[in-house]
């Protein structure tokens, strides 16, 4: 049997993670007192940087393998680790409207066998109903 390349592994991981991701819908965050929505924008951000360039294969693998822990981090985080004011485009189009937004970094230790500290970034766009899952990484 041929050994799969990191690119092939990443592609399979992305497909499998997508079904887990899509099944989440939203998770209530005690700290923000809001539901965090898992939508297509958040999943896209796991693969691409805000400027539209693709993340490296290793970056994508790193983020995608952590996605199953996102719900636990959002539920169990006890404080906002960091808050940032940012500007993002309304869509991926070049001349899209710039919107004001706030990023919250939530950190929690998750996992029973090998506990790790994971940081989830939540994005709240001004005048939007609910904040969205934006990113995930080891803390």
Give your account of this protein's structure.
There is one protein chain. The chain is α+β, with helices and mostly antiparallel strands and 139 residues long. The chain has one domain (6-138). The protein has helices at 6-24, 40-47, 57-66, 70-76, and strands at 26-29, 34-37, 80-89, 98-110, 116-125, 132-138. Helix 1 (6-24) packs parallel to helix 3. The chain is globular, with a radius of gyration of 15 Å.
Summarize it.
With 139 residues, the protein is an alpha+beta fold. The radius of gyration is 15 Å and the shape is globular.
Low-confidence stretches: none
Bin the strand percentage. 25-35%
The sequence of SSEs as H and E is HEEHHHEEEE
The percentage helix is: 25-40%
Helix/strand/pairing category:
alpha+beta
Overall number of structural domains: 1
Radius of gyration: 15 Å
- The termini sit apart by 36 Å
| Overall spatial form | globular
Instruction: Please outline the major beta sheet.
Output: 4 strands, antiparallel
How many beta-strand elements? 6
Tally the helices: what do you get? 4
Major sheet strand order: 3-4-5-6
Give the overall average pLDDT: 92
């Amino acid at each position: 049997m041929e050994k799969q390349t990191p690119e092939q592994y990443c592609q399979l991981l992305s497909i499998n993670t997508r079904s887990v991701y899509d099944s989440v819908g939203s998770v209530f965050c005690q700290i923000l007192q809001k539901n965090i929505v898992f939508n297509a924008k958040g999943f896209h951000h796991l693969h691409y940087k805000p400027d539209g360039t693709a993340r490296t294969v290793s970056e994508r693998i790193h983020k995608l393998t952590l996605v199953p822990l996102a719900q636990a981090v959002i539920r169990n985080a006890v404080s906002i680790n960091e808050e940032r004011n940012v500007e993002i485009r309304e869509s991926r189009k070049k001349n899209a409207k710039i919107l004001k937004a706030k990023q919250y970094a939530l950190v929690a230790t998750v996992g029973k066998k090998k506990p790790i500290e994971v940081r989830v970034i939540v994005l709240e766009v001004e005048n939007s109903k609910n904040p969205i899952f934006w990113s995930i990484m080891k803390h």
